[in-house]
Structures are given as structure tokens and as C-alpha cells.
Design goal:
Layout: E1 6-8, E2 16-21, E3 28-34, H1 37-54, E4 60-66, H2 71-86
Parallel strand pairs: 3-4
Antiparallel strand pairs: 1-2, 2-4
Length: about 90
């Protein structure tokens, strides 16, 4: 699947900024910056990975800047960025 640069989210409190870019290596490379890294870093990365995998995105560089987002917000932002990066509309019938 072809990936182009895409962004979703904000740096507001309770949100997360997701940046997706193409990569030459296989797999998902996730770079996470979060004020709650030690408590929830593994969970945030897991939600990002699960969401992208479910959408068919297996090779991409992802930069996530978290400001205390809940899992549902993380899923929504990752989905929006993936739709923008792939052009695949996951909401179409």
C-alpha cells in the first residue's frame, strides 16, 4: 500500500498529534513523545499499531506526540491520518 505524508490531531491537552510518513524499511516504526510515557507508553504504541494494522498499513514511520489522549482519541487520530496517507476511505459503504 502506498503511503504519503499525513497528519491528524493537535497538541492541545487531551489530544495526540499523529504524523505518518513512508519508510524504506519494513514494519511500523513508532516514535512516541508523551508526558505519561512511563505509565502508558506501551499502551499508546499498542493502540497505534493495532489501529494501523487493522487498516492494512504495515510499513510506515509514525511520530506521535501525546498530550494525555484517551485510547478512543488515539484510534480516531490514527485512523484519520491513515486515511489521509493512503487515500483509502474507511468510512465509505
Amino acid at each position: 500500500m502506498e503511503i504519503k505524508n499525513a497528519v491528524a490531531g493537535t497538541l492541545e491537552s487531551g489530544d495526540i498529534l499523529i504524523q505518518i510518513a513512508p519508510t524504506d524499511t519494513s514494519g511500523l516504526q513508532i516514535e512516541l513523545e508523551s508526558s505519561v510515557m512511563y505509565q502508558f507508553g506501551a499502551q499508546i504504541k499498542n493502540v497505534i499499531t493495532e489501529t494501523l494494522t487493522a487498516l492494512g498499513v504495515t510499513d510506515a514511520a509514525v511520530k506521535a506526540t501525546d498530550k494525555g489522549a484517551l485510547d478512543c482519541t488515539i484510534r480516531a487520530r490514527v485512523t484519520a491520518a491513515a486515511v489521509r496517507a493512503t487515500g483509502k476511505d474507511v468510512w465509505a459503504d
